[in-house]
Design a protein that fits this description.
Distance between the termini: 55 Å
Strand content: under 5%
Number of strands: 0
Number of helices: 3
Largest sheet: none
Radius of gyration: 17 Å
Structural class: mainly alpha
Helix content: over 70%
Order of helices and strands: HHH
C-alpha cells in the first residue's frame, strides 16, 4: 500500500480513534467522571487533528495543481471525518447535559 491509499487509511484510522475517544468521553460523563470526559475529548481532538492534517495535505496538493483522483476509499475517509465531527459535537452536548443533571442532583 502506498501513496493515496496510505493517506486514506491514515485518515480513516486517525478519525476512527477520535470517534472512539469521543464515545468514551460521553460514557465517562454518564458515570459522572467529568475530568476523564474532558481528557477523552482532548485525546480525540489530537487523533482528529492527525486525520485532518492528512486531508489538508490532499487539499493543498490539489490547489497547487496536482489533481487528486477521487476514489471510494477517499470518499469513505471523508465520510468518517464528517461523522467524527458530528460525534464530537454530540459528545460536547451530552457532557453539558450530564453536568447539568449532576448539579441538579446535588
Amino acid at each position: 500500500m502506498e501513496g493515496m491509499e496510505l493517506i486514506c487509511f491514515n485518515i480513516i484510522s486517525s478519525v476512527g480513534m477520535a470517534k472512539s475517544s469521543y464515545v468514551e468521553a460521553m460514557r465517562a460523563a454518564a458515570a459522572g467522571n467529568f475530568d476523564e470526559a474532558a481528557a477523552k475529548i482532548k485525546e480525540g481532538d489530537g487523533f482528529y487533528a492527525q486525520g485532518h492534517n492528512a486531508h489538508s495535505d490532499l487539499i493543498a496538493q490539489e490547489s497547487n495543481g496536482t489533481p487528486v483522483t477521487p476514489s471510494l476509499l477517499l470518499l469513505h475517509a471523508e465520510d468518517q471525518m464528517m461523522s467524527s465531527e458530528t460525534i464530537r459535537l454530540m459528545a460536547e452536548e451530552n457532557i453539558k447535559l450530564y453536568k447539568k443533571l449532576s448539579e441538579m442532583a446535588n
